[in-house]
Each structure stands twice: as structure tokens, then as C-alpha cells.
Amino acid sequence: MFQLLHLSFMQNALIASILISILCPSIGVFLVLKRYSMVGDTLAHASFAGVAIGLVFGFSPIIISFVFTTFCAILIEVLKNYYKQYSDLILPIVLTFSVGIAITLTSSGRAQGNIESFLFGSILTVSKSDLYTILILSIICVVLLYLFYEKLVYITFDEDGAKISQINVKLINYILSVLTGAAISVSIRIIGILVVSSMIAVPVATAMQLNKSFKSTLVFSVIFGFIDVIVGLISSYYLNCAPGGTIALTSVFVLILTLLFKAVRRNG
């Protein structure tokens, strides 16, 4: 295993994976507890459109993905005001819009790059510039999470109470949407667009089985996310396959093991 650290592409992939394993579950905790986990899946498809735009017009796919995903995240919040009675319609609308753009651009044959590396993830394509972009976005997200942590927790558990307490709920929801878009954008190089939402939801679902406090659940979500990403990444190298699949499978296996451990402990 340690010989992998001598490979430059593996060093880039590992650093990016560590950042992803911290960022995605940290944001995922708030999304899952707010019943917004499917938002992650919708924004993952939005990132596909962003990548397609970047590859067709020659811009950085990660940066354009972040911009477009953030736009779609804000669009979801705006549409909530128009579909208050039918909020479940919002996600299909944004998803259809994003996938339509992605398919139109990628099928045009003008994409200047390998779209499959973004769909399934790759440990070979994380360049230094990608790593710097991921690092900068991750630092910004962590700082924002720290600054708005208490308000995010308040809104997660009692949005009406937060409004009464004069908290700008709409602004905080917009910030959470931007953070979600950033988390997805920085993850697609390693995890891939098709399964990136699993890193937001599954480690949190695993941590919730421990029945701990919110802060402990947040910490364990990051720990499980780290295990999922690192084990999946190393497995993908030895199995010679895309890391997105092995990371997703690892996250599910860890969840199953946690459920089995919980059942044995309860019955024992």
C-alpha cells in the first residue's frame, strides 16, 4: 500500500479524497436531517451539465461545474416559492434541465476531454491544478460551515423557530445550497457524477445508526466517509476499475456491517 504514495497521481488522488471525505459528509448531515438528500442527486446531474459546458468551451470543468451546480442549487430554493404545495416537482424540473444540457453538448462531439472520467471517477486525471481548485473550494466551504454552524443546526431542526428568532432562514438555505454545489463539484474527479450523491448520504446514514448526538454524528459521518473513500480508492487501483463504483460499494458495505453490528449488539 505504501508504495502507492510514491506515485504522483496517487498522491493527488489521496489528497483530494481526504478533502472530499471531510467535506461531503459534513454537508450531508444537514441535507439528510432536513430530508434534502435527493437534492444531492439532482445537483450531481447538474454538475454533469457544468462539466459538459466546460469541456465544450475549453474552461476548467470543475470550476464551471461549481458555477452551474451553484446556479441550480439556488434555482431550487427560488422555485420553492412557486411550488409550495408541490415541492417534489422542483427536483425533476432542475434535473431535466441539467440532463438536457449535458446530453445536448456531449452528443455534439465538441467536448474537448474524456467525459467518462467525470461520470465514473478516475485516479489518473487529478492534476495539480484540479487539486488546487479542490483545496481552495474545500477551505472556503469549511470556513463557511464553521461560521454558520449554529444557524445551520437551528434551521435543520426547527426552521420555524429560527424564523421567530430573527435568523435569515432564506440566506442560510442559500448558503447550504452553495456548499452542496461546491462539495459535489470537488468530488466528481474522484467519485464520479453518477455516484457522488452516495458520499453525501450513505456515510451519514451509517453514522446515524450509532444513535449519537448531532456533533458525534457529524464526526462519525466524516470518519465513515474517510474509510469509504480511502478503501474504495485503493481497491480501485488494485482492481483496475473506476473509483466511483468501489467507493459506492464500500460505503454500502460499511453501512451493512454497521447495521449487523447494531443488531448483534441489541440481541446480545
**For the record, what is the CATH homologous superfamily label?**
ABC transporter involved in vitamin B12 uptake, BtuC
Summed up, the helix count is 12
Q: Give the rounded overall mean pLDDT.
A: 86
Radius of gyration, whole Å: 18 Å
Query: In CATH, what is the class?
Result: Mainly Alpha
The CATH architecture can be given as Orthogonal Bundle
Number of strands: 0
Q: Could you name the CATH topology?
A: ABC transporter involved in vitamin B12 uptake, BtuC
Poorly predicted regions are none
How far is it from the N-terminal to the C-terminal residue, by CA? 36 Å
* Number of structurally distinct domains: 1
Counting helices, strands and paired strands, the structural category is mainly alpha
Task: Describe this entry's structure for a reader.
- The protein contains twelve helices and no strands.
- It is globular, with a radius of gyration of 18 Å.
- It has one domain: ABC transporter involved in vitamin B12 uptake, BtuC, CATH 1.10.3470.10.
- Helix 3 (61-79) runs antiparallel to helix 9 (169-187).
- It has helices at 8-33, 37-57, 61-79, 90-106, 115-120, 128-147, 149-157, 159-164, 169-187, 196-208, 214-239, 243-267.
- It starts with 7 loop residues before the first helix and ends with a helix.
- The longest helix has 26 residues, at 8-33.
- The model has no long low-confidence stretch (mean pLDDT 86).
